[in-house]
Amino acid sequence: xxxxxxxxxxxxxxxxxxxxxxxxxxxxxxxxxxxxxxxxxxxxxxxxxxxxxxxxxxxxxxxxxxxxxxxxxxxxxxxxxxxxxxxxxxxxxxxxxxxxxxxxxxxxxxxxxxxxxxxxxxxxxxxxxxxxxxxxxxxxxxxxxxxxxxxxxxxxxxxxxxxxxxxxxxxxxxxxxxx
Length: 179
Fold this sequence. Notes:
This protein has a single domain, classed as Reeler domain (Immunoglobulin-like). It has one helix spanning 2-20, and strands at 56-59, 70-77, 84-93, 96-97, 100-102, 108-111, 114-117, 121-122, 127-134, 143-152, 162-170. Strands 3, 4, 6, 7, 8, 10 and 11 form a seven-stranded antiparallel sheet that branches. Strands 1-2-9-5 form a four-stranded antiparallel sheet, with no helix packed on it. It is built from one helix and eleven strands; from the N terminus they run H-E-E-E-E-E-E-E-E-E-E-E. It is mainly β.
């Protein structure tokens, strides 16, 4: 019986390591949306995710965005329990992408209105990423920013990691005025 338990434990650990390494370049696009079927908890499933996390912030979002303007943003994750962290952020206006993201960081990748870290960052209690968001030239519906961060224990498995989600909403606005 002990032998079977040992074999099962080794097999389970091997499967978990494969799941954790399934996306070595970052989480699948769209995983920051907590209501998406393939969100971050699809791979980091050991503990219940924290929705509306108060330790995950997007600084620099405008209260009244101007269409076509560029905004400097900082994603800040104040987690003292994590050994390594990563993030993903998406901006949507209903089902459409909203604007574009840009980052000069080598460990950050963008695709239109989605941005993510591509390698874990060592945590010292507070970690941040700097980026820019170019607002769309026209948006008549609110823009929702869904951000997710993983607080990982750096063991290469999906076990012992905690996912944090938070959403921000910007009001609908008008077309950019002619200069």
